[in-house]
Design brief:
The chain has a 5-stranded parallel β-sheet with strand order 2-8-1-9-10, with helices on both faces. A 3-stranded antiparallel β-sheet has the order 5-6-7, covered by helices on one side. Strands 3-4 form a two-stranded antiparallel sheet. The two termini are 16 Å apart. A hairpin with a 5-residue loop joins strand 5 and strand 6. It is built from 9 helices and 10 strands. It has 230 residues and is α/β, with parallel strands linked by helices. It has a single domain, classed as Rossmann fold (3-Layer(aba) Sandwich), CATH 3.40.50.300. It binds 2'-deoxycytidine-5'-monophosphate.
Length: 230
């Protein structure tokens, strides 16, 4: 059976990675979190003093980026783990410090070039579900199936709010909506590889869908591609 390249792009806090992971598992494909790669480079910069006062030492980073290794493995429970130079950094790359640094690091053109090369190498043989912002537009413009995920900012904010309440760290709902709207604007207006829907991507507005409905919809799109219905 044909092994597809599946690109899942879209706005932040849309549940892209949960959806991509579940789909990869169901199909027996490899899941690649392209955002984790940008986060790993950002962590490297922070750990090596290459970021100061919101500026990256691009000369040094450019010299070293070719020698960085970013790889993935699966832990005993089946969860993907990110390795930077052979060391598991999965927890560290999710920190607030890295989240704050990643928007400047991921906007550097030579960083994007290096990551796009790596993403293409990882997915070139198919059987891959990759999520990010520019997978269907830049990384795999010929992907077999492209999904662009969106949901109203207020719906995403409500989900995030509920998650934080559940974790015991509630934050004001209004603040969360504003933060999501700001990130949407930054993602869409940055100069290099801004977030935009590929012409041939299928839009999934998951604001009103349950997880089960969403999974069923996704499998229908995959089956259509595998069996040639579209
Ligand atoms: O998906 P995420 O939030 O883990 O992504 C982290 C950051 O990397 C976010 O600022 C967007 C950026 N990113 C990107 O520019 N291109 C991608 N393909 C994936 C993520």
């Amino acid at each position: 059976m044909k092994k597809l390249i599946i690109a899942i792009d879209g706005f932040s806090s849309c549940g892209k990675s949960t959806m991509a992971k579940a789909l990869a598992k169901k199909l027996g494909y490899t899941y690649i979190d392209s955002g984790a790669m940008y986060r790993a480079v950002s962590l490297y910069c922070l750990q090596n003093g290459l970021i100061s006062q919101g500026k990256v030492d691009e000369t040094t980073l450019k010299d070293r980026i070719g020698a960085l290794t970013i790889t993935f493995e699966t832990d005993a429970d089946g969860f993907p783990q990110t390795l930077l130079n052979g060391v598991n950094v999965e927890q560290l790359i999710r920190s607030l410090e890295v989240s704050n640094a990643v928007s400047i690091v991921s906007a550097i053109p030579f960083v994007r070039e290096a990551m796009v090369d790596l993403q293409r190498k990882t997915g070139e043989h198919g059987g891959v579900v990759m999520d990010g912002r520019d997978i269907g537009t830049v990384v795999f413009p010929n992907a077999d199936l492209k999904i662009f995920v969106t949901a109203d900012a207020t719906v995403r904010a409500k989900r995030r709010y509920d998650e934080l309440v559940e974790k015991g760290h509630p934050e004001p709902y209004e603040l969360i909506v504003r933060n999501i709207e700001l990130r949407d604007r930054l993602d869409q207006t940055r100069e290099v590889s801004p977030l935009r829907k590929a012409g041939d991507a299928i839009v999934l507005d998951n604001g009103l869908l349950s997880i089960e409905e969403q999974d069923a919809w996704l499998m229908e799109q995959v089956n259509n591609k595998i069996h040639g219905a579209s």
